[in-house]
Amino acid sequence: RESRGKLPRYPGLERWILLEKMGDGAFSNVYRAKDSLGELGEVAIKVVRKYELSSSQRANILKEVQIMRQLNHPNIVKLISFSESKSYYYIILELCQGGELFHQIVRLTYFSEDLSRHVIVQVAEALRYLHEEKGVVHRDIKPENLLFDPIPFIPTKNPKPKNPNDEDKADEGEFIPGLGAGGIGRIKIADFGLSKVVWDSVTMTPCGTVGYTAPEIVKDERYSKSVDMWALGCVLYTLLCGFPPFYDESISVLTEKVARGQYTFLSPWWDDISKPAQDLVSHLLTVDPDARYTIEQFMAHPWIRNTDEETQPAP
Ligand code: ADP
Ligand code: MG
């Protein structure tokens, strides 16, 4: 699995032993790496090629790091450190062993309602923290930017052995890396490349001079939060049925469909998905941002509140 030989060596990154390439973007490669000093264990390193960036794109990388520095939440990828060389930025991140949620949707075709709830609640917890406590909007919520740490052992639904002589089998469960009946592990939001601070978390006001803020700025701040809620709806839709709510080969047709909020609960795929789940999706995929569910409304929805002890996975 480790393909150390083919991996590049970066100046200034000598502390880290690159183990494998885990992802790549337009201007970056992401590697799994381990600490040669043995202090920090395994990490993810996003190596951004500076020389391909305009000065405003460079500023955006610094902003991404600046925002991540302020965040501390179990459902958000933690920034470990940041450094740079002449040609590269190095963003050292907490490693998410499970990789992208996207691959799990592809692997499983779609998620059960319980597993979908387990996932989406964690994304929502992170959004609530970003929106309500940090004044940050993510603006790029999608399955590729949702990572997870797998739970290595999934206990069986009925941990009590039928035969008391089989007491030692009580803990028997299924070992499915990354996935199981009870959950998928801990979900973490990654990629703050498009994120933005919309209000000052200290003064609890929109960014800019208080009192001179124009109404459209105040509204803009509210709207940008609702952008994440729309994306949350798209992710929930995709989890439940395995394909996205809006799709067309033609970008212009797709854009028009999104603008009109033209999606359907396509039969037969949606036939067996509960009405409360559909109701929640429809409140998120609402074109009017003022009518769209806020994070609080989302959390209060019956489908989210439905906590069956049997199906609720351990964190
Ligand atoms: P980009 O801006 O290029 O989309 P991302 O920050 O989304 O950059 O990283 C690209 C990909 O690298 C992700 O979609 C994911 O597959 C992988 N990745 C990024 N950060 C981590 C991490 N902390 N742990 C595991 N994989 C990661
Ligand atoms: Mg990304």
Automatic annotation (TrEMBL):
- Coiled-coil segments, which residues? none
Q: Which domain of life is it from?
A: Eukaryota
Question: Cross-link named Glycyl lysine isopeptide (Lys-Gly) (interchain with G-Cter in SUMO2), where?
Answer: 142
For this UniProt entry, the molecular function terms from Gene Ontology, in alphabetical order, are: ATP binding; protein serine/threonine kinase activity
Per UniProt, which keywords does this protein have? ATP-binding, Kinase, Nucleotide-binding, Serine/threonine-protein kinase, Transferase
Q: Where does ATP bind?
A: 46, 144-145, 191
Cite the active-site annotation.
140
Domain Protein kinase as annotated: residue spans: 16-304
What is the name listed in the Swiss-Prot or TrEMBL entry for this protein? Answer: Protein kinase domain-containing protein
UniProt source species:
Orbilia brochopaga
